[in-house]
Amino acid sequence: MQPYFYSFQEFIAMGEHGPYVWSTWGITVLAIIGFIFYSLNQRRRLIKELKIQHARQQQRKQKTKRN
Q1: DSSP letters along the chain, please?
Q2: Do 11 and 5 contact (CB within 8 A), yes or no?
Q3: What total number of domains does the chain contain?
Q4: Where are the transmembrane segments (predicted)?
Q5: Assigned domain for 1 exists
Q6: How many angstroms separate the CA atoms of 43 and 38, rounded?
């Protein structure tokens, strides 16, 4: 069994397809990281909105109990 690439430099070059291969990998990794940060941001916003909504509901309950 012979290795496909004999050196790290050949591995990076990928038979002259290196720029396409590595740019595709880079774009994919950046997209995944972007989706992770976007999802975390959305989650924080949703939790904040739910806390505000819960506080409003508690205020309404207290007002109705007083009346």
Answers
A1: ---S-SSHHHHHHTTTTHHHHHHHHHHHHHHHHHHHHHHHHHHHHHHHHHHHHHHHHHHHHHHHHH-
A2: yes
A3: 1
A4: 20-40
A5: no
A6: 9
